[in-house]
Structure formats: structure tokens, C-alpha cells
């Protein structure tokens, strides 16, 4: 397995300037900053995936947060959504620590990689359909590089689900027709023309809207992660 492939892809993603609106927004946020992070040098670029190149489980979100990943340069790092996600990954034995505050905080993921279908922070957390489709090729390439070991995917939220299904097809898995609908706890097996299939799981997004209202509880998130990890053949706490 060529483990250097993902490193090269990550570098290419970080240099992408394909979507003018997203480029303008992420760089404006990096210049103006939030008062609480005035002493930070913001990343202000597309945020690549995070995790080992031989991951058996992939977690797919939506897009980096303006003052989270766009600030720290790492997926789900430095924001409330990441606090919830990495705590849950730690609880089920898939992360080395329960917090993610910066790209150099020592966090390691065990057999898990985290990515998103849109790599730039979008205004109001809402990429346009054109921006989503423009960014899809990066996810297709990432899936292709992970394919030798990847066995399961957890998709966070309906946007990620809808954006990821065409990427799975583009990377060589067969998506059923009609396309499976998103739901929390949904489980779909995607067959492949060559090699093993892929187990796809749906989970409500770890957004503050969902976690603060109790629509997604820590227990619900842990349950999905445990099930997906077991399906992927990963040990879990």
C-alpha cells in the first residue's frame, strides 16, 4: 500500500482555490478573526482529512467551521462539534485523548479517519450545490486511496449523506437505486465490482443545534460509532 498517497492528496487539497466565494470567505475570516482567538494565526485554507492512511473506518462531516478547522487546520478541531465527536471517539477506544484543540496537540486516531465533502469553511455553514460538486473529486480520490483497508463509513447529517453517495459511486462502490435516504441509525451495504463492499451508517450531525437540543446525545453517537467500528473490524471500548 502506498501510504504516501494521502499525504500528497492532503497537500493538494490545502492548496485548492477552485471556489471563489469560499476562498474569499475563509481568508476574510482568517484576517478578521474572532476576538477570543485574536492571538491565533488562522489556517485560512482548505482543511484536509485527518487520520491514518490505513483507516478501516471513515467519518464524513459537512465542512470545516469558520473558527474551528479554518482556524486550526485540522478537521473538527477547536469547536464545539469537535468536542463532542472526539470525546465520543475516545470513549469507544478510537482516539488517544478526548479533546482536540490544535493541530499539534498530540491527538491520534486509531483506525479512523475524519474528512468532509467540502474542505473550505462556507458562509453560514452552507455550501452551494456547485461548491459541493466541485469539491467532490477530492473525496473520490481520498476514498480511492483508503479503499484497500476501508470497510465502514459514518456520515454525519443529511448534507454529508447526499454529498457522499455520488463520491462512493465514483470510487467504485455501487449505490442502490433509488438512493438510500438519510436517517439516524441508517445502515446500507454498498457492493463493489471488485474487492469488499462498504458498510454505510447514518448519524445526526454533531452540530450544536443537535447536541444542545438533545436530538443527538453522546450515547446515541457512541452507539453508532461502536456499531460501525465493530463492522469495520476495529477493537472498541
From TrEMBL:
Residues 48-225 form the Uracil-DNA glycosylase-like domain. InterPro entries: UDG_Type-4/5, UdgB-like, Uracil-DNA_glycosylase-like, Uracil-DNA_glycosylase-like_sf. Coiled coil: none annotated. Keywords: 4Fe-4S, DNA damage, DNA repair, Hydrolase, Iron, Iron-sulfur, Metal-binding. The keyword Coiled coil does not apply. CDD domains: UDG-F5_TTUDGB_like. It comes from the Bacteria. SUPFAM superfamilies: Uracil-DNA glycosylase-like (SSF52141). Belongs to the uracil-DNA glycosylase (UDG) superfamily. Type 5 (UDGb) family. This is Type-5 uracil-DNA glycosylase. It comes from Streptomyces thinghirensis. The lineage of its organism: Bacteria, Bacillati, Actinomycetota, Actinomycetes, Kitasatosporales.
Amino acid at each position: 500500500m502506498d501510504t504516501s498517497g494521502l499525504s500528497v492528496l492532503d497537500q493538494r487539497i490545502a492548496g485548492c482555490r477552485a471556489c471563489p466565494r469560499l476562498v474569499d470567505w475563509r481568508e476574510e475570516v482568517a484576517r478578521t478573526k474572532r476576538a477570543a482567538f485574536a492571538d491565533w494565526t488562522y489556517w485560512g485554507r482548505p482543511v484536509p482529512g485527518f487520520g491514518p492512511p490505513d483507516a478501516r473506518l471513515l467519518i464524513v462531516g459537512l465542512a470545516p467551521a469558520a473558527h474551528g478547522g479554518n482556524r486550526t487546520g485540522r478537521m473538527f478541531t477547536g469547536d464545539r462539534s469537535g468536542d463532542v465527536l472526539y470525546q465520543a471517539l475516545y470513549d469507544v477506544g478510537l482516539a488517544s485523548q478526548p479533546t482536540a484543540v490544535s493541530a499539534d496537540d498530540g491527538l491520534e486516531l486509531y483506525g479512523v479517519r475524519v474528512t468532509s465533502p467540502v474542505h473550505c469553511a462556507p458562509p453560514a455553514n452552507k455550501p452551494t450545490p456547485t461548491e459541493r460538486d466541485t469539491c467532490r473529486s477530492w473525496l473520490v480520490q481520498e476514498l480511492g486511496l483508503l479503499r484497500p483497508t476501508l470497510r465502514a463509513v459514518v456520515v454525519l447529517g443529511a448534507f454529508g449523506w447526499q454529498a457522499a453517495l455520488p463520491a462512493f459511486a465514483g470510487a467504485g462502490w455501487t449505490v442502490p437505486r433509488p438512493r438510500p435516504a438519510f436517517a439516524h441509525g441508517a445502515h446500507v451495504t454498498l457492493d463493489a465490482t471488485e474487492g469488499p463492499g462498504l458498510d454505510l451508517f447514518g448519524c445526526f450531525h454533531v452540530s450544536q443545534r443537535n447536541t444542545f437540543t438533545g436530538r443527538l446525545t453522546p450515547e446515541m453517537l457512541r452507539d453508532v460509532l461502536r456499531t460501525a467500528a465493530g463492522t469495520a473490524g476495529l477493537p472498541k471500548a
